[in-house]
């Protein structure tokens, strides 16, 4: 777990994954296809980070609470040991460390992507 705490090491692993993806999948070895490979990885991290940010912000809490309450009312098999009001909401289950992990890696990969795009269009 200590390797996950070093965000720069994980960033280097992600760059290695991008390079490996580029060498395996790319039809031609040029800057254009490397930028495409970097795009896939960077925006995966950003998508997951933004999704975690929305969940942590409490967007789905009211919906989850309403479904739990509705299920408790209409359920034919009552479970009296299940206290649906004390179950954690989705915003309480997302840790801030995971949110910052995905946002940092996605943001840094995106900055690299933008830098490579600037180099690509400058050379073009």
UniProtKB/TrEMBL annotation:
One Pfam family linked to the record: DUF3899
InterPro entries, per database record: DUF3899
Keywords associated with the record: Membrane, Transmembrane, Transmembrane helix
Statement: the UniProt record of this protein carries the keyword Disulfide bond: no
Annotated TM spans: 12-32, 38-59, 98-123
Residue ranges annotated for the DUF3899 domain, each copy included: 35-117
Superkingdom of origin organism: Bacteria
Protein name in the entry: DUF3899 domain-containing protein
Origin species: Halobacillus salinus
